[in-house]
Design a protein that fits this description.
The protein is built from eight helices and nine strands. By secondary structure, the protein is of the alpha/beta class. It has one domain: Spore Coat Polysaccharide Biosynthesis Protein SpsA, Chain A.
Length: 219
């Protein structure tokens, strides 16, 4: 965003379940974001110390504690609803075992601000070491691009934005307008498949899924 542009209200939503080992990489990266964000956690009844660790180490994070495991889509829907209630312009869905760079949020917001036809925009998904593309992500984008082009993304990333048939919901930035048009995740899906269903509904509403080469998230 330019220095004169007002900040958009970005709410990050993270679904947690027995993920204490990922708390500091994930929430530490969100706390270090150069772009201001607020963070909502929906915990799926963890039996470890995930919630206690978040509350102790990141007191600004809003933690919603569920009494049962609602699954990925169901818990995200709770967080999305709360984000929209807080008048979020954008909701950033992030896996509990992923972490961002300081510039990730700002660059994603800038891209969506420039093109309202994007329903979802995602950074490139790298492994935890940041040395190569995540295997699952490569499989996703290989359906839209040849293996040669996918490898070129990794070796010489540019600021290009690419359309993809599907990106798994490990790090999605979704606009308020898109959420209001498409809704949340389908209730038929407990774990896996809910993001594919969401992208199908997104496409039905003539919105696009995009990835940006230069922006990274570690999985």
């Amino acid at each position: 965003m330019s220095s004169s542009a007002p900040y958009k209200n970005v709410v990050a939503v993270i679904v947690t379940y027995n993920g204490s080992k990922w708390v500091h990489p994930c929430f530490g990266s969100l706390a270090a974001s150069e772009y201001p964000i607020s963070v909502i956690v929906v915990d799926n009844n963890s039996s470890d110390n995930t919630v206690a660790l978040i509350e102790e180490s990141y007191p600004k994070v809003r933690v919603i504690k569920e009494l049962i495991n609602l699954g990925f889509g169901g818990a995200n829907n709770i967080g999305i609803k709360e984000g929209l209630r807080r008048n979020a312009d954008y909701v950033f869905l992030l896996n509990q075992d992923a972490w961002i760079e300081k510039t990730t949020i700002g660059n994603l917001v800038m891209a969506l601000e420039r093109n309202k036809s994007y329903g979802i925009i995602s950074p490139m998904h790298y492994t935890g070491t940041g040395s190569r593309l995540d295997r699952g992500f490569k499989l996703c984008i290989s359906k839209s691009y040849s293996q040669k082009i996918v490898e070129e993304f990794q070796i010489t990333p540019s600021d290009h934005v690419h359309q993809s048939e599907f990106i798994n919901a490990a790090a999605w930035l979704v606009s308020r307008e898109s959420l209001q048009r498409v809704g949340g995740f389908g209730n038929l899906f407990f774990q896996y498949g809910e993001d594919r269903d969401y992208v199908n509904r997104l496409n039905y509403n003539l919105l696009k899924v995009k990835i940006i080469e230069l922006i990274k998230v570690n999985i």
